From TrEMBL:
GO terms for molecular function: alpha-glucuronidase activity; xylan alpha-1,2-glucuronosidase activity. Residues 43-52 have a biased composition (Low complexity). Residues 471-698 form the Glycosyl hydrolase family 67 C-terminal domain. SUPFAM superfamilies: (Trans)glycosidases (SSF51445), beta-N-acetylhexosaminidase-like domain (SSF55545). The active site is at E307, D386, E414. Residues 155-470 form the Glycosyl hydrolase family 67 catalytic domain. GO terms for cellular component: extracellular region. One of its GO terms (biological process) is xylan catabolic process. This is Alpha-glucuronidase.
């Protein structure tokens, strides 16, 4: 709220009706009540809700009681105050000049906004009320700067239309996974002990948080859909509608994870075969009822034939048959199916070196390209394995030109320190979004998933819960914020987004002239993901975590299990041979140049070496170090970096609230303990396997 001060202390005119503009009004009014400014709302124009009684009595144009410091206006709410008209005319002239005369009438765009400062007035214009809301948050981000020097009209539009968070929240507490699967921020904000929470205030606050960073969709339950959650689709639909009511004012639509076998499980049909007429009729009827209750419902999320979840394979059908069944039910209402590509054999024989989990998603889905209906979105994890801190980009993303593809990122830190470790994930995400599967001249991952019509958008597995700081580790909030900002503008600089987050989260301390807090948080967070990578599994080999909960080191924890996540270390070397020449052939799933780069032992990037190759410990990396020495060096360095960050944080006492400072201090103690454990286990393991001593003679237990 403190970040609203620059707006709250000024005079604002809001022109536009309807519920979302109502939210903008409430936001500004709340800030004014706190900081002494004023807001006047005029709901004028034919379709903008003037009839809903919310117009506070201002006149439609001309003398509207100005002057104002800030004008927020829907373009359709004209006639606008003169300064807003001038900005709009300028924007139209400019977009005509940019793009040629044919687009003279080009609008600002769905969810987009134009922001400018002219003649001492800050102007935000939008075609839709959602755009107005995002424009308001833009002004919040600018702070005092928004009311300083004149600024030319700038247009902002989201790169991806779907910017979604998936909650792995269970309605009923799961005996192993608890209320939130892989959740590290307390309980669910939606569900508690088998039911919808009585008090949904926090859900509304969450919607506000999401709008502030640009997220516009939320799936409210776990992709593993158990018995209680299956019924959200039918007799517990009212709960989903109640959540939708709370999120709607912030432009956030609700989606539901569904059980593919729901018709069978709920006793509606004798089968869940996607080609069966009864099954089709069941989904059509159920989906119609969903839209009666939630007219702006987003659609279904499905984990099928994956890790034991039911799917079309049981009936001899494929993923396209399965996805198209649900897409058919949703199509009349404009809904979409997010069909997850996380499909592999989780019961493989570890003795069988030819089965490669990394290959599985491509092998299943690439042959189906072109068979999915256009309201199916294939939701692909960023890497071929499972959200490791270092993986190559999934080859599926480039393999489906006739399918809408969404990129799935894991905001919840299952494999990156579980919100006990500081790990700012944006640099990793940004690398993934910038990856160009066909080489420098081709499109990047961001272009593929964000494409205006064909793109499936970005999906993040949420890291928020009922924890007072939302995310367990207070600094993990930055990951939530950045996910939304990157989904909006994928080429943003991670350090710049972090800077924004610091300013919004700690507006008082961050605004101090000495900039100490800002500087320290950058030092602690900018490269924290690199630090995490250094003290955990080396050179892209992945896993080495404790089986089950996935926290802390256990080098051989998964080595002789059916899960397909192996490192194959022996006395001579380590790594997975995924080459076409001698390995599993996974490198062949990439187009050139990457199929060649990854195949080649000399060209493969060091950080992915052990993902693609099995090499002797003496193999020399591009920086001249051997693999074994690199393992020792990075593990010592990673721990030293954590210790430095911990001390840096200690110096910030007094600059941030005391309770927050204490929470992070305690978490740093745990991070350091755990990083030391990683260092010692990994180093000791490889010293014992290889017999090669550390060149620097450091103590390895
Ligand atoms: C990981 C995670 C599971 C989750 C799965 C998924 O394997 O450990 O808890 O269900 O991913 O993404 O479906």
């Amino acid at each position: 709220d403190e970040a609203f001060r620059p707006i709250g202390s000024r005079r604002t005119l809001l022109r536009g009706g309807g519920p979302l503009a109502g939210t903008v009004h409430e936001e500004v009014a709340r800030a004014c009540a706190r900081y002494g400014g004023s807001v006047r709302r005029q709901a004028a124009g034919p379709d903008d809700g003037a009839a809903n009684g919310r117009d506070d009595g201002g006149e439609a144009g001309g003398d509207d009681g100005g002057p104002y410091d800030l004008v927020l206006a829907l373009t359709a709410a004209g006639p606008l105050p003169a300064v807003a008209e001038a900005v709009l005319a300028g924007f139209r002239r400019r977009s005509a000049a940019d793009d040629g005369p044919a687009v003279e009438d080009e609008g600002i765009g769905e969810e987009g906004y134009v922001v400018a400062r002219r003649d001492g007035v800050t102007v935000v214009l939008a075609d839709s009320a959602a755009g107005l809301l995002y424009g308001l948050f833009h002004v919040v981000r600018l702070g005092e700067e928004a009311f300083g020097a004149e600024r030319p009209a700038e247009r902002h539009r989201p790169a991806a239309r779907l910017r979604m968070l998936d909650h792995w929240d269970n309605v009923a507490v799961h005996p192993v996974m608890g209320q939130v699967e892989r959740g590290y921020a307390g309980g669910s904000i939606f569900w508690c002990d088998g039911a919808l929470r009585d008090d949904l205030t926090r859900v509304a606050a969450y919607g506000r948080l999401l709008a502030a960073c640009g997220v516009n969709a939320v799936a409210v339950n776990n992709v593993n859909v158990h018995a209680a959650e299956t019924r959200l689709l039918t007799d517990h639909l009212g709960d989903v509608a109640a959540i939708a009511d709370r999120l709607r004012p912030y432009g956030v639509r609700v989606h539901l994870s569904v059980n593919f076998a729901a018709p069978l499980a709920l006793g509606g049909t004798a089968t869940a075969d996607p080609l069966d007429e009864d099954v089709r009729a069941w989904w059509a009827a159920v989906t119609t009822r969903v839209y009666e209750a939630i007219p702006d419902f987003g659609g279904y999320v499905v984990k099928a034939d994956s890790e034991g979840q039911p799917g079309p394979h049981a009936y001899g059908r494929d993923h396209a048959d399965g996805a198209n069944l649900l897409a058919g039910a949703l199509a009349p209402f404009g809904g979409v199916v997010h069909w997850r590509a996380f499909v592999y054999n989780h019961r493989q024989d570890w003795r069988d070196r030819s089965t490669d989990r990394a290959r599985a998603a491509y092998d299943h889905f690439a042959p189906l390209d072109g068979r999915f209906r256009d309201n199916v979105i294939l939701q692909v994890k960023h890497g071929p394995i499972d959200f490791q801190v270092r993986e190559p980009v999934s080859p599926v993303i480039a393999a489906m030109p006739r399918t809408r593809v969404a990129l799935e990122l894991q905001v919840t830190q299952e494999y990156t320190g579980q919100q006990r470790h500081v790990c700012y994930l944006a640099p990793m995400w940004s690398e993934v979004l910038g990856f160009r599967p066909w080489g420098p001249a081709g499109p990047g991952v961001a272009d593929i998933v964000a494409g205006d019509v064909a793109g499936g958008g970005l999906v993040g597995v949420s890291n928020a819960g009922d924890d007072p700081y939302w995310t367990g580790h207070p600094l993990a909030q930055a990951n939530l914020y950045t996910f939304g900002r990157l989904a909006w503008a994928p080429s943003s600089d991670p350090a710049a987004i972090l800077d924004e987050w610091i300013g919004l989260t700690f507006p008082l301390a961050a605004g101090r002239d000495d900039g100490r807090l800002r500087e320290a948080l950058h030092e602690i967070m900018d490269d924290s993901c690199g630090t995490y990578e250094r003290y955990t599994a080396p050179l892209g080999v992945g896993f080495m975590v404790r089986p089950g909960h996935h926290y802390g080191p256990d080098v051989d924890g998964y080595e002789y299990t059916p899960w397909g996540t192996y490192h194959f270390a022996d006395r001579d070397g380590v790594g997975v041979d995924r080459t076409r020449a001698t390995g599993t052939g996974f490198t062949g799933q990439y187009p050139p140049p990457w199929s060649e780069v990854y195949e080649s032992l000399t060209r493969c990037p060091d950080e992915l070496l052990l993902f693609f190759h099995h090499v002797p410990y003496g193999h020399v990396l591009h920086d001249g170090s051997t693999v074994i020495q690199h393992i020792y060096d990075t593990h010592f360095a990673g721990v030293e970096e954590v210790e430095r960050a911990r001390l840096r944080w200690a110096e910030l006492a007094g600059l941030v609230p005391a309770a927050l400072h204490a929470r992070v201090r305690e978490l740093f103690a745990e991070q350091l303990r755990c990083a030391e454990e990683w260092r010692d286990q990994v180093n000791a393991y490889f010293l014992r396997k290889s017999g090669v001593p550390d060149a620097q003679g450091r103590r390895i237990p």
